[in-house]
Amino acid sequence: MCKFWILTIGFLICEVMLAFAFSAIAQIYYSKISGFEWKSIFKGTFERIFITVSLIHNLPHALTFFSALKLATRLKHEEPKDNENQFNDYYLMGNLASVIVAIAYSYLYNEFDKIELFVKICS
Predict the structure, then answer these.
(1) Range of 49's domain?
(2) How many other β-carbons are positioned within 10 Å of the β-carbon of residue 41?
(3) What does the alpha-carbon distance between residue 26 and residue 33 come to, in Å, rounded to a whole number?
(4) How do residues 56-90 score in pLDDT, each as one tens digit?
(5) Pairwise CA distance, residues 90 & 62, whole Å
(6) What angle do CA 83, 86, 92 make, to 5 degrees?
(7) Based on the structure, what is the number of domains in the chain?
(8) Tens place of pLDDT for every residue, the chain, 123 residues?
């Protein structure tokens, strides 16, 4: 039970920090976005949950499926020519960061009993 609560609270804290970080980066890097875009925050959270659950259940090919979905949704996005590369870079870096976070979540879940800090907290 301790594992569930630690991972759930950790997940929520990380997701709040990611929402602030991605929002700040979007405002600095891609100035069209202002404030929080709740739709994007929820979509990113669900994407990370999908990737994490897939990796926890040893389904790494889900990353290929995820990439295909992201590419398919990106194809119809039109951007003015002067901002096109800027948006593409922002989109790529955001997706890479999101996948890295999901990989970290799955690692922490799978290796929970081997991480000394978690063992001390739960004992």
Answers:
(1) 2-122
(2) 17
(3) 6
(4) 999 989 888 888 888 777 766 565 666 656 777 77
(5) 23
(6) 135
(7) 1
(8) 788 899 899 999 999 998 888 888 777 776 665 667 788 888 889 999 999 999 999 998 988 888 888 877 776 656 566 665 677 777 788 888 889 999 999 999 999 999 999 888 888
Tell me the one-letter amino acid at 32.
K
Show the tokens assigned to 100: 């890295």
The predicted structure's pLDDT at residue 111:
93
| C-alpha to C-alpha distances, 15 to 31, 60, 68, 77, 122, nearest whole angstrom | 22, 22, 24, 26, 23
Cα distance between residue 1 and residue 101, in whole Å: 23
Which residues does 106 contact at the CB level (< 8 Å), separation at least 6? 51, 52, 55, 56
Q: 76 in helix, strand or coil?
A: coil
Q: How far apart are the first and last CA of the chain?
A: 12
Where in 1-123 does DSSP place strands (E)? Answer: none
